[in-house]
Amino acid sequence: MEKEIGKVTHWYNKISVAVIKLTGGLKTGDTIKVKHGEEESEETVSSMQIDHEAVESAKKGDEVAVKLSGEARDGSTVFKVS
Questions:
Q1: Phi and psi angles of residue 55, each rounded to the nearest 5 degrees, phi first
Q2: Alpha-carbon span 59 to 69, nearest angstrom
Q3: Whole-model pTM?
Q4: What pLDDT digit, counting tens, does each position of 4-52 carry?
Q5: How far is residue 20 CA from its own chain's centroid?
Q6: Ordered domains of the chain (ranges, CATH)
Q7: Per-residue three-class SS string for the chain
Q8: Nearest CA-CA partner of 28 in 72, 71, 58, 68
């Protein structure tokens, strides 16, 4: 089951980090799916930051930076997979 939890507002290609504006909660260990059109990738959140500070969890309204192994694009939709 998938639940939309945010959108990618910025993608840092060189360091493979997505900035995600959350519309739902997220914590380390959660599995997320990043979709852009027909492209999608799935992975487990190993770490995330808010304002360059490592955090274990984030809530609706937060903007978090998450390191991804795959690629994302500005405007990609982020889902939590359960």
A1: -130, 155
A2: 23
A3: 0.94
A4: 999 999 999 999 999 999 999 999 999 999 999 999 999 999 999 999 9
A5: 5
A6: 2-81 (2.40.30.10)
A7: CEEEEEEEEEEECCCCEEEEEECCCEECCCEEEEEECCEEEEEECCCEEECCEEECEECCCCEEEEECCCCCCCCCEEEEEC
A8: 58
